[in-house]
Write a structure and sequence with these properties.
5-stranded parallel beta sheet; 3-stranded parallel beta sheet; TIM Barrel; alpha/beta; globular; 16 helices
Amino acid sequence: MTGYRRIATEEAFAPPELLQLYRGLLRDGDGDVPRDRGFESLWGFYLGSAAERPRAVVRRLTDLGAGRIADMDAAGIDHQVLALTAPGTNVLDAPTARTMATLTNDMAAQAVRDHPDRFTALATVAWQDALDGNADAAVAELDRAVRRLGMCGVIANSHVQGTYLDDQRFWPVLEAAELLDVPVYLHPNTPNDRMVEPLHEAGLDGAIYGFAVETGMHLLRIVTSGVFDRFPRLRLVVGHLGEALPFWLPRIDHFHAAQVASGRYPAMKALQLRPSDYLRRNVWYTTSGMAWQRGIMFVREVVGPDRVLYAMDYPYQYEPDEVRHQDELPLDAAAKREFFEGIATRLFHLTV
């Protein structure tokens, strides 16, 4: 009826085994991993609350079958790109994270085999391996997930125990993604312990604002560190219309140039291009959780219509009526098909 397939590109799931590990961390902690206040706030709520919404979210996260597909049908979603929910394996010790990444990839691959017309999936890796000097293990799992399991990208659930992807120990994984020609999806995490407290005390540490603060900063760190000069063909995807960065482009360019000229910060070095150029060349923006026509049209204008694509943010923001709001974007038929289907098909090399 619409003339396009609605492909939703930031749709979370979680193996029950991972949620059980989360319960153990909340109850007992892990002597090998620092305490994470953001994790305790977020997952203490979802796994501890008796309210209906968090219980429904947890139930939907673990369903990769009939229940999820029924929700998709009710909302008019034809296809989901599955990704491990935040913080994924990032709060685990490296050996446990490695085991859980393998289990997660195998589970997602089975869901895709069971429902190839409804699902594709992003790979999970143990990013901690890179911090431990064992980036080859993360690269090997990414290679297995893409080449053998057919996955279409890799999820990065933002900081890894307070360390960000501008850290060069992670760069072998980014290089592997570039060579495999699959995008890295930079998904929010709760702010790390060095920045979470003033957000948490005001109730702002989660999706209402803390995610945007944390992930917008992370994306900008990636840009200003020179990642895209080192890996010019690396493709990065970010949700929530870019965590506000598209609204800041002129200011970012201005003060980046000023700080480079002043030599004020050792980490702030000259780049081959302006920061905004990388945000237009190397980054794609999904509408997850941002079914706001004015915002979508603005971001399309400033980064390019070929960079903005549809996502729902299932199950955290499962609102079937928001699909209608985006169906009603002031776009012609060809542009709307690109927004819902064409860009995602090319970006993730989808074949269904």
